[in-house]
Amino acid sequence: MVEMFDWQEDRAKIKSWLREGITWQPGDAADPNLINILGPQDMVVASNFLCHMARADAERCLGNIGQLVSPGGYLFVSGVDLDARTKTAFDLGWEPVRELMVEIHDGDRSVRADWPWEWWGLEPLNRKRHDWQIRYAAAFRIASPEGRLFSAAPHNG
User: Fold this and answer.
1) CA-based nearest residue to 93, from 32, 30, 143, 155
2) pLDDT at 3 over 70
3) What pLDDT is stored for residue 18 in this prediction?
4) b/e map of 126-143 (b: 16 or more CB within 10 Å)?
5) Taking residues 87-114, what's their average pLDDT?
6) Which of 25, 60, 66, 135 could form a disulfide with 86 if both were Cys (CB 3.0 to 4.6 A apart)?
């Protein structure tokens, strides 16, 4: 934290070297007009806020966030109900980034250890599921609206 923020009493300000080249703008991830406010982005990170929404709301919000990603860009999404993420990714034709997928999924042992007893617990990766490659991916490449990067049919293997 000390390396990233300048502290003044109980207030933190992001260090200038971290702010360089970045435009900071608050927004509502559920706002369908967000793409018109922020414009297309090469990379979007959505982490640990969709888990607090009802599944249908999380699916809508995730689809909205996905629209922010430029064709060929990347969406990183964690902390969301796996059923909601899987359905949205299939419906919108997102390509899972398979590189380090297992390591990323298994990376935070604390959330893995809490499954299935706590709502934030993350289910173990199960390669026997027909949809496992998209279900357990936290990173996706987004296709252009007119061309899917992969078939929406579930993968085997």
Assistant:
1) 143
2) yes
3) 84
4) eeebebbbbbbbbbbbbb
5) 90
6) 135
Considering only CA atoms, which of 41, 13, 17, 14 is closest in space to residue 29?
A: 41
Whether the model clears a pTM of 0.85, i.e. scores above it, the answer is no
CA dist., res. 62 & res. 30, Å (int): 8
DSSP lists the bridge partners of residue 45 as 76
For residue 40, give Cα distances in angstroms to 82, 108, 139: 25, 30, 17
Report which of 26, 91, 23 is spatially closest to residue 62, judged by C-alpha positions.
91
Name the residue with tokens 């922010």. 68
Rounded to whole angstroms, the Cα distance separating 52 from 135 reads 19
Cβ count within 10 A of residue 81: 17
C-alpha 121/C-alpha 147 separation (Å) is 35
Residue with structure tokens 């207030």? 11
Adjacency order of strands within the sheet including 95-96:
41-47, 69-78, 139-141, 95-96
